[in-house]
Amino acid sequence: MERNEFIKSLGLGIALVCTGSCLSSCGKKGDDPSPNNPSGGGGVSSGTTASVDLGTQLLTVGASVVVSGILFIRTATGNATTSFAATQATCPHQGGSLNFIQASNFIQCSLHASRYTTSGSILAQPNDGGTTSALKTYPLTLTGSTLSATA
Ligand code: FES
C-alpha cells in the first residue's frame, strides 16, 4: 500500500467512527423533553368535538362517559352546561385511562392512581413516584339535548 492510500484509508476510518458516535448519541433517552410523559399526555387533538345525547346519556348525577377521548361527567342536576364537566380521558402522566369515581367525587387514573377534581386540578400524584400535571378541560355547549365539548 502506498503512503497516500494508507493516509486516505485512515481518514475514512476516522470519519466513519465519528459519524457513528454522533448518530448513536442523538437517540439517547435523556434527549426526551418530557421523560415522565412518554405517551404524549393523553390530550385530544385541537379542534376535536365530541358530543353526548342527554336524552339517553348522563342521566344521573355522577354518570360519566368517554367520547372521542373526552371524559364527560354530570356534576349536577338539570341540563345546563354548568351541570357537566369535560376533561381529557387519558392521564397526563403516562396515558392511563381516567375514571370518575362518583362516591369520592374525583377522577382517578387506572394506572398509577393519580387523582383530579372535575375541573382538572391535581388531588394526588401518581403512586409510582412520578409527577403528573393538571387535566385539560374543554368548554361545553348545549344545543337541544346535545352536549358538546371542543378541544
Ligand atoms: S398514567 Fe396516570 S398516574 Fe400514571
TrEMBL record:
Task: List UniProt keywords, sorted A-Z.
Answer: 2Fe-2S, Iron, Iron-sulfur, Metal-binding
Gene3D superfamilies annotated for this entry?
Rieske [2Fe-2S] iron-sulphur domain
Origin: domain of life: Bacteria
Alphabetically, the GO molecular function entries are: 2 iron, 2 sulfur cluster binding; metal ion binding
Domain Rieske, first and last residues per copy? 83-149
- Pfam family example for this protein? Rieske
The protein's name in its UniProt record: Rieske
**What species is given as this protein's source?**
Pedobacter paludis
